[in-house]
């Protein structure tokens, strides 16, 4: 009987797929220790979105998180992280010196293995990063990315078993040093037949001592079937998760897979009682976090428009934040055309985010009226070669709107010439902000940009989404600071308290008893009224959050001049006035959430 190994993805992909990667380290460490005590020896604990999200939303250092995980599990456990080839742990490609620094620092902070993938399966993007991982003494898991195509979009060769086998042959021809191979299907849309034939072909190509690792998601309902096909074809390791982050948008559950293998020639060789006990610890640890319902759902739409489980809930949560979740089905449907005309790159970060951003723009601003920055750069070649040539009209639109020419050049060479992507540029930003230029700070600044600087200077607010009961608890805890007369005052008092960007009505009764409830419709934007009915109303073309206001009341502006920046779906969009005149009033404030079509500025023509 063959023992199938597994990696527990609960503490990286599980967090990303279910909680948008926004989980505090102190909250999950007891569950990690419980899983080790249950016999699990291989964990995914960082990289991917679990790097940037700690700085953006959790006010935590990802390197501290890695150190804490290593301390919790001891020296012998395989701790694995995820890297995006030339992008490493960011959404943009990096210079060679930053890519090398990534491997050096992750080794320093206790990582054993790095899974290295490229959404375009461009071997050039895997070559340098893979060598850095190997040279710094880490185990390198080189990766081929998979995706299923819906009927009508089947390109024949792209995303077929033959295409994946040829990608593996290119890796071998390049002589990238690696310790294992992963076939990664972030959307869970590759069919079981494709997975079986791909793994079977790989097993025939690779030396017998090289382990084959397969990664999928349950989002489209095919995860377990794909794993069964992979195992029968010769896979050695699969990715699984524990409740409450298993199934749905995440990986199949450890116990579900164990049960599926009963009576076959394969086994996970686990003590199911111990796994059950560890899962209960994990459930208790995660009790206070908001788990969106779509995180636990099987969504048949995903098989038709591939959206990775790790990105789905992050995007739906952002749409909740921007009051436009009703647009989600339209955006998912729009992704079919966006994928096809973009060159069929695999729907995995960062390309999956580019697809979603472009589909979002097509829904909210009109089809192909606004090219998303990342999507445009991808079709122009600034992330590498796409599996097929992008649509020529989309390439033309991208070139015109972004002011860039198409390129076939190696992205490393492009980035090495860009002084803004150098470690020297990061050092300068740190110096300007009075921060020490440690290697960790240089890397944080290089991969997280201004948001990284905000974290390092302590000026970034928390962005963790807790459940309603936990939010109320935090509001009550905050109330005494805002109500200095409590608990001794004899009069009633009411306050509005904001916790993690959410408003709560807090009522202090005589004697100090405090109650709270979510504030309905509380926003600065909603409270403001147009000051002049005769003035031209500049309206938001899309839903989003106000991140910068570029003009002031009384300023004279020209038609086409940027006056505000909105952020939605990790995109910053400049809002330009289409009328010249004098700004009479600005109706929103920084941090406000606005709806598409909402008046944001009044201009007297």
Map the helices and strands.
Layout: E1 2-3, E2 5-8, H1 10-19, H2 25-37, E3 42-47, H3 49-58, H4 62-73, E4 78-83, H5 96-108, E5 113-116, H6 123-135, E6 139-145, H7 161-174, E7 180-184, H8 192-205, E8 211-215, H9 223-233, E9 237-240, H10 254-261, E10 266-267, H11 272-285, H12 309-321, H13 328-341, H14 351-365, H15 373-380, H16 392-402, H17 411-416, H18 423-432, H19 439-457, H20 468-482, E11 493-499, E12 502-508, E13 514-518, H21 524-527, E14 536-539, E15 544-549, E16 556-557, E17 562-568, E18 571-576, E19 581-586, E20 593-594, E21 599-604
Parallel strand pairs: 1-10, 2-9, 3-4, 4-5, 5-6, 6-7, 7-8, 8-9
Antiparallel strand pairs: 11-12, 12-13, 14-21, 15-17, 15-20, 16-19, 17-18, 19-21
Helix pairs in contact: 1-12, 2-4, 2-11, 5-6, 5-19, 7-8, 8-9, 13-14, 14-15, 15-16, 18-19
